Amino acid sequence: MSSEAQHVALSLQDHLPVLQVLIPFLAGPLIVLLGSRTLAWPVAFIASFAAFVCSGLLLSQVMNGGFISYHIGGWAPPLGIEYRVDAANALVLLLISGISTVVLPFAKPSVADEIPQRHHTLFYATFMLCLTGLLGVVITGDAFNVFVFLEISSLSTYVLVAKGASKDRRALSAAYDYLIMGTIGATFFVIGLGLLYMATGTLNMADMADRIAALGTNRTVQAGFAFIIIGMGLKAAMFPLHHWLPNAYNYAPSAVTAFLAATATKAAIYVMLRFMFSVFQPDFVLDMGATWIIGLLAVIAMFVASFIAVFQNNFKRMLAYSSIAQIGYMLLGISMFNLNGLTATMVHLFNHGITKAALFMAVGALVLRTGTTFYDRIAGMGRVMPFTGAAVVVGGLSLIGVPGTAGFISKWVLVQAAFDNGWWWMALAIMASSLLAVIYVWRIVEALYLHAPNPEAEHQEAPLMMLGPIWIMAGACVWFGFDTELTLGTARTAAEALLAGSAGMAEIPTAAMH
Amino acid sequence: MRHHLILRVITKLLVGAIILFAFYVQFHGDFSPGGGFQAGVIMAVAFILYGLVFGVAQVQRVFPPWLVHKLLALGVLIYAGTGVWNMLLGYEFLHYGSFAPHHMSHGQHSGILYVEVGVGITVTGVMVAIFYAFAGRRPQLGDDDW
């Protein structure tokens, strides 16, 4: 018992990985217990901001390599559940908690407008649970824990989407669609985990990686891989599995769409990356031919989804289809299978997150004044809401990838990755699909500026509570277009660790094996 | 249900026994099969049975919906709060050993009791809330409104 006597009390710093998830998790039930409409929002915002601070501190510790491991309950991995922070997930944690912290102030007036008052308390509680789930999915180093947090985030997401029902009843069927598809995705994921558990006898990701490497490939592991990729593909809206996304984004309340579009699919892409590269090995993924399948689907997504977006006459729906196309870019980066490709995926994950958050929040501001998102009804609103309109333009430019915006950085790295592989035609394809983005962004700019303002709408700029968050995100789109040290630097560290396969997850205490 | 005398009498007799059994399963869960999940469901069964026989309105007088919702949240907070307490004692989140640093297994023992209380409260709340949600549902559209 002498070792216990020498125990050194852990400091707040040591607890950061668990506080990251714990703070929003505590806020959820606390809001319900307080049961006060006035206190719900402040509690949610403080929790979200605290989570943001945690992720900032974590990122600053790992952005130059290395990792932090936290043992839940004091049980050491591989037996216990481990929270494991490295450059790859710290960047995603920062994105998720940052977006939530910016979206919450925006949500206050938006939710007051779109959701009946008696649901407000539960709305913020559900929002906190969704945030908890997404952060947990990303931070955990335990494969089954990913599934648990995935369910926490998914179930609360279905509820959040369904809250759009007071404005449009179709939100209910959209949420139901999402529930069915999301559950199928989660089931596929857990079947894959079951197969891997059968083959390796462990659930810790790093341990699993070692054992798969020692075991060599076999049918069980291959089937597990396929199930996991398809399950996560559904969650990430990989092209033919994207059916749930347009309706869910379109009918959900504006604040929910802004939050989900910027975070939920990104967390799924991260899990996909983590499993493909760290748990399975890069060589294994190549042997499976997964890169070709993912690459092909990515290119189809880039063109088909952009093409559909061009013909939309609903701003929110157009952005939803554009999201599917942008996820195509991230998957394309994975399929390039080189350092620049993975860097592009990680950077685009971040940059697309902030771009879509800015755009979807601007949509929310337009909804507040016009009550709708159809082009003919929001026509000319850019003139009477100059700041919102300008934010749409900045976000749109970032979506296209114009130099000076965040979107340019990720596409630039992606094109570099294409040249690294000698795929010059792929570089052309990226350019061509960006041209489609020019068309759909131009259509909304035209609708906002080149028409007489809709006389039925309220001709007033959005409140400051909305403009602030919108412009923080729009400003971030420009900022990260120039200052790429945080995004590109961290993404490159992350990509190096991912490409190193299980070596990138090494230094785990695998004492039980020796 | 007014004329089902036997059902009503038996229910009144059983409710107390069911609740007692729920507590047994709750607090004996670390020695024999049981624990918070099972105890929570058994506890909820007492209220659901009462509601089935005497009507939702009656059971909601005993166990009002607002209380159910608070208990849902309270149970989760007890569980997480146990973990926070461990952190305040200077150990990892949910490291129950910290309750008795010189005899870790005793600490583990008491820690599991605390979190199981949280689980039991939340599961009771969830089961009763589901019952209320279905049993208390009124059709939003009358038959003539279609």
Give a brief rundown of this model:
The complex is a heterodimer of chains A (514) and B (146). Chain A has 514 residues and is mainly alpha-helical.
Key features of this structure:
heterodimer; A: 514 residues; mainly alpha; two-stranded antiparallel ribbon; 21 helices; 2 strands; 76% helix; disordered C terminus; B: 146 residues; 5 helices; 72% helix
Give an account of the 3D structure.
The complex is a heterodimer of chains A (514) and B (146). With 514 residues, chain A is mainly α. Chain A has a domain at 291-501. Helices cover 76% and strands 2% of the residues of chain A. Chain A has 21 helices and 2 strands. Chain A has a two-stranded antiparallel ribbon. Mean pLDDT of chain A is 90; it is low at 508-514. With 146 residues, chain B is mainly α. Chain B has one domain. In chain B, 72% of the residues lie in helices and 0% in strands. Chain B has helices spanning 5-27, 36-54, 56-62, 65-88, 104-135. In chain B, helix 1 (5-27) packs antiparallel against helix 2, helix 2 crosses helix 3 and helix 2 packs parallel to helix 5 (104-135). The longest helix of chain B is centred in the C-terminal third of the chain and has 32 residues, at 104-135. Chain B is elongated, with a radius of gyration of 19 Å. Chain B starts with a helix and ends in an 11-residue tail after the last helix. The mean pLDDT of chain B is 89. The A-B interface holds A 1, 4-5, 7-10, 15, 18, 22, 25-26, 28-33, 35, 70-74, 125 and B 66, 69-70, 72-74, 76-77, 80, 83-84, 87, 89-97, 101-104.
